[in-house]
TrEMBL record:
This is Myb domain protein 6. SUPFAM superfamilies: Homeodomain-like (SSF46689). Transcription factor. It is found in: Nucleus. Residues 9-61, 62-112 form the Myb-like domain. Gene3D superfamilies: Homeodomain-like (1.10.10.60). The keyword Transcription regulation applies. GO terms for cellular component: nucleus. PANTHER family: MYB TRANSCRIPTION FACTOR 42, TRANSCRIPTION FACTOR MYB8-RELATED-RELATED. It holds the Pfam family Myb_DNA-binding. GO terms for biological process: regulation of primary metabolic process; response to other organism. Keywords: DNA-binding, Nucleus, Repeat, Transcription, Transcription regulation. GO terms for molecular function: transcription cis-regulatory region binding.
Amino acid sequence: MGRSPCCEKEHTNKGAWTKEEDERLINHIKLHGEGCWRSLPKAAGLFRCGKSCRLRWINYLRPDLKRGNFSQEEDELIINLHGLLGNKWSLIAGRLAGRTDNEIKNYWNTHIKRKLISRGIDPQTHRHLNNQNPNIVAMQLQTLDHGFKEEEHNYSNCSTTATATATAVTVTQDFSHPPQINLELSIRPPHHLM
């Protein structure tokens, strides 16, 4: 019972994508649209599973993706939206043009969360940690440092380069009051149906 696997695992490539594979995927989607991800690899002449093709397209190859460092405005918007929505990364990504949910989640966990804690702000509740023991805040920072170093090590083994730079962000939000943001969220069909 249940759904059958998206591919036959025996004859699929795994690991880093080559330029040739990227070009095949881009050209196929330009000609035929996204369509059914389960049948796309075979139609495009790729030895990858549909899920791998979908994730490669959505997270790396789409022409509307925004690359590079996050701006201060994006940082503040992520902090404000997280205060309202919590860890709903896809909803947050919907308000930041060209950014993916996975990219925002990773950026939150490696940069913003640490900055908030160092400023004495609880990243989950967005409230000041004034009443909290300074030793607890120091332990939270150590835990984040350890996790960040592990992620940095994991990224160094990937084919794509991950930059681990810490930049200062000035947060002018008063976290004792909920942020005022007009979300105007809407649901729309996927890109290929538009």
